[in-house]
Amino acid sequence: MNHATKTGAAGAGPCGLLLALSSGLLAFERVAVIGLMGLVGCLILLNVVTRYSGTPIYWIDESAIYAVVWLAFIGASAMTRLRLDFSVGMLTERLPPTGVKVARAIATAFTVLFGLMLSYMCWLWMDPVGIAAAGFDARTFAGETFNFLYTEHTQTLNWPTWAVSLVIPLFGVSITIHGLANLVEDLEFVPRRVYRGFPMANAEAAS
Predict the structure, then answer these.
(1) What is the pTM of this model?
(2) More confident residue, 186 or 193
């Protein structure tokens, strides 16, 4: 299990609830990443064995691809909260401590903005209100909106494309939550949390 420790007494109220939500989401993402990594390894191993035995399973390649896609998005969300995402320190390392704090807060605010914009674009793309208004009839919805998301299926697994693509709006929401949690820490509304389950989560540059 993943446990978080704090550098001081965490503030109550909305900020405390936000940090609790982010911590719970991060714990789930940790389990999901471990599970997906194991799944990808098993799929690749099974693919090698079946190919060498002359009985390849045609859907394994696509399964591995989608598992890696979900792993990438979920892992990227967790890395955002842990501040392990890519950063450029050429400017901030020359700033005074106050300037570093301001730069870090600005960069985090852009992360939140990106998450909000991505979530909004996914809302327009998946149009849950529109598909509900069409009685969840994919063909009717596609005929009215020319949005064929709900009528398409993957090539070999024959899974609904919308189900596979669901990781994108989930990523948008999760990165927004983690970004807001980072932002309230950067603004020093609450002490910064340290996650013992992730020993490398000690990035100092603005990210």
Answers:
(1) 0.85
(2) 186
